[in-house]
């Protein structure tokens, strides 16, 4: 039996000097208690009660920094019956405490806990009582306990961001506390130091025995699609000296239909027992990443019974699939190796982005927000998200949605951009507990594809930290090189482990093997022209690009929301505070290069052209990486925001699609044509990531923008399932290409969109105004369908709808004479009518 203690807590604050020894004083405090429910970050009730303003709008984050200089106290009363108290064991669990916490029950100090990354759990039978029980928790944000002598070894290596507009972001002490590192500020987020009881609190009443854990793996899939499954069951006989016989029943279901069952008798020793069970599922439905097949999920039911005492393990879902990380040698040379995920024996091109926590105050992210974000990733044709190591291990709902929507997870352990104090015994112990818990918790998720030791720390060992006070101290290396691989192999051996990101080869951020963070050749290059030229990505030779990016703005309504009534002035303090610290005038330079002079731009024009530039840079670069036969992954930085800003993402803090979202969605389409040129040769690449052969007649060639002059030919292609290849090459025309473009398009409807190659920036092209028309307009309850067509080349076709409206495609280019079907999804409350859809295109003047 389990009870949930999330409701009706009280919270107050005291000075930091109110220590655990002051427990009685705070317990007896009569006033200044605030009602709250869990999960609770201390900012949440303070905002609700008007004590602080919302810290994520305007410049209000500075006004709430006092919260990290207080101790926070929670209390709750709950009832225990005589029957419950008679249980052999009564275990209380705090799922997440952020971060330095002391816990009392009925005036008895239970323990101190110092990590937000694994639960606090304790048997409270001796301290519980029939009737009313009282819990009290003291928690702080943690930095106040960092001793100078321990900090000395890592002080100079923590990555700190600082400029005139944002002040200092991050904190030199953050590596000493086991909690989300981003909350002290990063280039893309403010300092909002989280603190609180940020997960569920439960009490388990245990009698006789319990099923502690079940681990399911797919050991083999036969040619006849029979899946062989292995179940590792952990049971505990709680009696200290008696053996016990239990009857186990294991069921596998698909929907409501039972597909396999196993019943067995087990003889349990006192304490822990481990049982391995084997089952076969005939005609297994395989789980595939998004775009490569379906995501069928089976469910597991496991129960144990002994002498009329029955225990049911919580039912859970899993997908049948095999997983491999291919790091074999490539044909190009002895030093080059692949870095490619294989699902069910098929190589996956990993398409996606880096995930950060969805709110600076992460405890208030709702299940609905998680669902929206991961569903939007699916809609954008993602098949992978990388959980970045400066954030957190997400709630269960995140992983469940990734299973459901076919999104593979590259999962960093929570270490980022710093040396960590693994020379200290307590830190190593905390790290081991954290890794052990999280690998066990997440190992049944079919979406989990990789455990990775950290973000950029091996790169730092190689390039950044060789001139510090302790150059030979590789702080954290013991955690990533010894503790993590040992625990991953023990707890989830079918999940690959990778020491860091980037990592591989003689230098961790090289291109011969492993993964690469492709920053300093492009977006962070000293030369502005390198940052804003998409063709620079044609030069990439990396085997897997796991970070790179380009900055762009949110939609206007989102910017207005975080300006909180203040004028939208790009020189203002609020604008600059919410402007990514690495922007460095790159956005305006991109507008200048690709569209028009950016001086004195009105805000609407700035948002339009800056959004188009971000879309151009991301869309072109992703296509370039997909076109390279040796590259097996493209994860850009980053997918989502923790507050509103002009930044890296394609979906903003308010869950609105940025203009660039649609460019990424097109770049990631499962069936795709791409055109590139190299040394005067035009190359046409075709990609088919589906499980069906595609046969198509393609028209390819060169056309003027008005469509009057065209040199074209046709080509028959056959694309095998899960394939990409160069289907044709031809010589580049020497004519003035400011008046023309290269293209390829399908002549029938095979799910392909045309491929376009322009060889000059848009502002140099002679694109005239084109007449856009709508036809085949049809309205249904939740959608409006229509076809848009253009007589001549039309650039960035869009429809003038509200920022929150979702379309199947937008900001796309149309070839002369091309038609494209578009869907607008609407809710019953929006009241959108077809007459509001007005097609527009960008004319370069």
Automatic annotation (TrEMBL):
Any matching Pfam family: Glyco_hydro_2
Catalyses which reaction(s): Hydrolysis of terminal, non-reducing beta-D-mannose residues in beta-D-mannosides
Keywords: Glycoprotein, Glycosidase, Hydrolase
Enzyme class of the recorded protein, top EC level: hydrolase
GO biological process: carbohydrate metabolic process; glycoprotein catabolic process
Domain Beta-mannosidase Ig-fold: 775-837
Domain of life of the native organism: Bacteria
Gene3D superfamilies for the chain: Galactose-binding domain-like, Glycosidases, Immunoglobulins
Positions of the Glycoside hydrolase family 2 immunoglobulin-like beta-sandwich domain: 210-321
Enzyme Commission designation: 3.2.1.25
SUPFAM superfamilies: (Trans)glycosidases, beta-Galactosidase/glucuronidase domain, Galactose-binding domain-like
Domain named Beta-mannosidase-like galactose-binding: residues: 28-198
GO MF terms held by the record: beta-mannosidase activity
The family this protein is said to belong to: Belongs to the glycosyl hydrolase 2 family.
UniProt name for this protein: beta-mannosidase
Organism: Cohnella abietis
């Amino acid at each position: 039996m389990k009870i949930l203690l999330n409701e009706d807590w009280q919270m107050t604050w005291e000075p930091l000097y109110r220590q655990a020894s002051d427990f009685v004083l705070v317990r007896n405090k009569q006033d200044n208690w605030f009602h709250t429910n869990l999960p609770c970050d201390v900012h949440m009730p303070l905002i609700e009660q008007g004590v602080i303003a919302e810290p994520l709008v305007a410049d209000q984050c500075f006004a709430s920094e006092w919260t990290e200089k207080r101790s926070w106290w929670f209390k709750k009363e709950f009832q225990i019956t005589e029957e419950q108290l008679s249980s052999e064991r009564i275990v209380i669990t705090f799922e997440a405490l952020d971060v330095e916490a002391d816990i009392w029950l009925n005036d008895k100090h239970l323990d101190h806990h110092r990590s937000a990354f694994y639960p606090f759990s304790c048997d409270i039978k001796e301290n519980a009582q029939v009737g009313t029980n009282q819990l009290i928790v003291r928690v702080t944000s943690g930095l106040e306990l960092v001793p100078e002598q321990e900090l000395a070894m890592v002080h100079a290596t923590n990555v700190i961001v600082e400029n005139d507009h944002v002040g200092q972001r991050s904190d030199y002490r953050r590596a000493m506390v086991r909690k989300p590192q981003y909350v002290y500020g990063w280039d893309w987020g403010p300092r909002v130091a989280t603190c609180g009881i940020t997960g569920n609190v439960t009490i388990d009443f245990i009698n006789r025995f319990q099923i502690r854990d079940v681990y399911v793996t797919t050991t083999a899939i036969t040619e006849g699609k029979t899946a062989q499954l292995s179940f590792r069951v952990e049971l505990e006989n709680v009696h200290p000296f008696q053996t016990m016989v239990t009857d186990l029943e294991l069921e596998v279901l698909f929907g409501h239909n039972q597909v396999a069952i196993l019943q067995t008798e087990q003889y349990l020793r006192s304490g822990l027992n481990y049982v391995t069970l084997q089952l076969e599922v005939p005609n297994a439905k395989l789980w595939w990443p998004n775009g490569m097949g379906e995501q069928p999920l089976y469910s597991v039911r496991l129960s144990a019974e002994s002498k009329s005492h029955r225990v049911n393990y919580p039912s859970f879902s899993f997908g049948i699939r095999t997983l491999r990380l291919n790091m074999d040698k490539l044909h190009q040379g002895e030093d080059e190796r692949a870095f490619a995920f294989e699902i069910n024996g098929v190589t996956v091109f990993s398409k996606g982005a880096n995930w950060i926590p969805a709110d600076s105050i992460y405890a208030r992210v709702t299940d609905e927000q998680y669902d929206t974000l991961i569903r939007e990733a699916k809609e954008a044709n993602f098949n992978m998200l990388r959980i970045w190591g400066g954030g957190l291990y997400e709630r269960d709902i995140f992983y469940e949605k990734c299973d459901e929507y076919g999104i593979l997870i590259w999962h960093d352990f929570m270490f980022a951009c710093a040396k960590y104090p693994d020379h200290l015994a307590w830190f190593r112990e905390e790290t081991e507990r954290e890794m052990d818990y999280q690998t066990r918790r997440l190992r049944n998720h079919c979406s989990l594809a990789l455990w990775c030791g950290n973000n950029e720390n091996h790169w730092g060992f190689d390039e950044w930290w060789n001139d510090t006070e302790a150059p030979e101290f590789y702080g954290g290396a013991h955690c990533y090189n010894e503790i993590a691989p040992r625990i991953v192999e023990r707890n989830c051996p079918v999940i690959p482990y990778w020491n860091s990101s980037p990592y591989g080869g003689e230098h961790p951020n090289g291109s011969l093997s492993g993964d690469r963070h492709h920053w300093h050749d492009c977006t962070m290059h000293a030369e502005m022209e390198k940052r804003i030229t998409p063709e620079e990505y044609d030069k990439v030779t990396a085997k897997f690009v796991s970070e790179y990016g380009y900055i762009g703005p949110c939609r206007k309504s989102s910017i207005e929301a975080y300006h909180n009534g203040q004028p939208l002035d790009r020189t203002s303090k609020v604008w600059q505070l919410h402007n990514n610290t690495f922007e460095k005038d790159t956005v305006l330079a991109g507008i200048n290069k690709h569209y028009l002079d950016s001086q004195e731009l009105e805000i609407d024009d700035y948002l339009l052209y800056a959004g188009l530039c971000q879309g151009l840079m991301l869309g072109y670069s992703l296509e370039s990486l997909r076109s390279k036969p040796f590259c097996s992954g493209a994860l850009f930085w980053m997918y989502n925001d923790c507050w509103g800003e002009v930044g890296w993402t394609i979906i903003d803090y308010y869950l609105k699609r940025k203009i660039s979202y649609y460019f990424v969605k097109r770049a990631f389409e499962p069936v795709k044509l791409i055109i590139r040129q190299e040394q005067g040769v035009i190359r046409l690449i075709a990609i088919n990531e589906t499980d069906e052969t595609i046969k198509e007649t393609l028209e390819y060639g060169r056309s003027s923008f008005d469509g009057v002059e065209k040199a074209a030919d046709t080509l028959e292609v056959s694309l095998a399932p899960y394939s990409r290849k160069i289907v044709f090459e031809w010589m580049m025309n020497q004519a003035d290409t400011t008046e023309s473009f290269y293209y390829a398009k399908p002549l029938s409807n095979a799910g392909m969109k045309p491929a376009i190659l322009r060889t000059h920036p848009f502002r140099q092209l002679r694109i005239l105004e084109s007449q856009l028309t709508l036809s085949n307009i049809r309205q249904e309850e939740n959608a409006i369908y229509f076809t848009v067509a253009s007589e001549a080349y039309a650039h960035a076709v869009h429809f003038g709808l509200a920022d929150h409206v979702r379309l199947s495609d937008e900001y796309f280019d149309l070839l002369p004479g091309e038609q494209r079907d578009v869907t607008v999804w609407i809710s019953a409350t929006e009241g959108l009518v077809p007459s509001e859809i007005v097609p527009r295109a960008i004319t370069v003047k």
